[in-house]
Amino acid sequence: MLLYINNRSGGNWFLTFALPLCCGVALINIAVIALTRYLRHGLLCIFGGALILTGTFMMVIEYLINLTFGLRDHVIWSFYPFIILALLGVMLIIIEICPPIKESLRKKFFL
What we know:
The chain is mainly α. The chain contains 5 helices and no strands. The chain has helices at residues 2-9, 14-38, 43-69, 79-97, 99-108. α2 packs antiparallel against α3 (43-69) and α3 (43-69) runs antiparallel to α4.
């Protein structure tokens, strides 16, 4: 579909932007689904890693935007969601690793 839109509009953004973007999102989703399906323990580590990987992929997306469309020369906006997602991911990993914190949160939120 994206290749068709690229060809019909006369663009040259498919190989440098759309294909890596779709493949990256698909790989992250497939990895999370496969890990949650086959690993029963450590779900917080899986989702924490997925958050960190998503934040990193946002930086890659901005690089691809700059490479393909030439909007800016350096990374500006993607650093902020990366910081937030990395902090949330590290928080989930720490909760998974530390049993007293995990048990306290389980009691507090009735899980």
